[in-house]
Design a protein that fits this description.
It contains eight helices and eight strands, in the order H-E-E-E-H-H-H-H-H-E-E-H-E-E-E-H. By secondary structure, the chain is an alpha+beta fold.
């Protein structure tokens, strides 16, 4: 992105000072009213945020002050309403992508790993699950990785860790469908007394085979039978996973 600026020759200490001088020079008539903005990507018609009711033509632009990409309305850029990202408001290099859907996922990912007050912290941070330094320190790094992985706004993909015992990093993460993400979970339901995934005690059955085995796959539940011992039911669960090559974790004995 380039802004045609005259008479800014002395060194400046921050993007905020650059932006202030741009405004001063513009007032003096040294900066053209029309600017040339470098567009990185045309995002097409999208909702600016989750609560928006009207779609706008959005794009990813390069901030002329901090050189970071930011998301903005093409109309606002074209008519001069938006001239830089949020760094011009805070005085330090920041991006203006806090309304991007990925930013919310990035923020929630960090919260469940590092914030003890998060309801999900017990299943992540307390288990030693963390976010790699590259992503934790800069949202842009996470955003660029997501784009390389094929992430597109509007698609209903979820962030999934291939190994649930490892943290969030480029090597262990991928975007998958909700169905596959649900398969790849380590959690056992609260009403499960067997200690095995997919195995439940059926107290109403009158015979000895009171342990029921079931599994959810591709939006359907499959009942795998009743067994005398929970280990047998757990093995039936594992056999289904192996046979159908699903992403469910195997029960461990």
């Amino acid at each position: 992105m380039e802004i045609l600026v005259k008479n800014i020759t002395s060194p400046v200490s921050s993007p905020f000072e650059v932006y202030s001088r741009i405004l001063m020079d513009k007032a003096a008539g040294d900066v053209p009213l029309s600017t040339t903005m470098k567009m990185i990507e045309d995002l097409g018609l999208q909702y600016p945020c989750e609560k928006s009711k009207v779609k706008k033509h959005l794009g990813i632009f390069e901030c002329p002050l901090c050189k970071q990409p930011f998301r903005a309305s093409i109309y606002a850029i074209k008519h001069g309403h938006t001239k830089a990202c949020r760094c011009s408001s805070f005085g330090t290099p920041k991006h203006r992508m806090w309304r991007h859907p990925l930013y919310k996922r990035w923020s929630m990912m960090k919260g469940r790993c590092f914030n003890p007050n998060s309801p999900s912290y017990k299943d992540y941070g307390s288990r030693g699950i963390s976010v790699c330094k590259e992503w934790n320190e800069d949202f842009i790094n996470f955003y660029e990785w997501a784009k390389k992985e094929g992430y597109t706004e509007g698609q209903k993909y979820e962030l999934n860790r291939r190994d649930n015992d490892k943290g969030y990093n480029p090597e262990n993460c991928e975007f998958t469908t909700h169905s596959i993400n649900n398969q790849n979970t380590r959690l056992i339901q609260n009403n499960n007394t067997s200690g095995f995934r997919g195995v439940f005690y059926h107290k109403r059955k009158k015979d000895a085979k009171k342990w029921m085995s079931q599994i959810g796959f591709n939006g359907k539940f499959y009942y795998l039978g009743y067994f005398e011992f929970p280990e047998q039911a757990a093995q039936a669960y594992n056999n289904f996973i192996i046979t159908h090559k699903t992403n469910h974790p195997l029960n461990k004995f």
